[in-house]
Amino acid sequence: MVKKKRQNKLLISRKRKDNVILKIWEWVSSYLFAKNVSFKKIACSYCSLKNAVWINTIVEDYACDECIPRGCSCVMYPKDGNENNLSISNWDYKKDDEGNELPCEDWRKLTKKDLIK
Ligand SMILES: [Zn+2]
Question: What digits encode the pLDDT tens for the residues 73-99?
């Protein structure tokens, strides 16, 4: 029991360490980028008013966070964990941390790398 607890603690601290390293890397790379590189802004293909934050990797299409088409059969999950339960009420769209439905997997977030001039 004690051993298990300790293992869990180790797992958590390792995860935290990875997060810290990631954060440092993000900070360092953003600093380096900001110093030497300038970034372009890409307009949303739908409203053309806001800056795009999403890119469609299949067709060249860009979307802001409001226009991004959300909810797609490819980002659904079975609520009871059983993929064989095909009852419609068992399936729901995966959501992000803010509770928004995820877009189709063809879309990904734009990164700084995408926006280098
Ligand atoms: Zn838009």
Answer: 899 999 999 999 999 999 999 999 999
Distance from residue 56's CA to the centre of ligand 1 (Å): 13
Query: What count of other Cβ atoms lies within 10 Å of the Cβ of residue 86?
Result: 9
* Contact call for residues 40 and 117 (beta carbons, < 8 A): yes
For residue 100, give the amino acid letter.
N
* Separation of CA 66 and ligand 1 centre (Å): 6
Report if pTM > 0.70. Answer: no
- Ligand 1 centroid distance, CA of 74 (Å): 22
Q: How far is the CA of 43 from the centre of ligand 1 (A)?
A: 8
DSSP code of residue 48: S
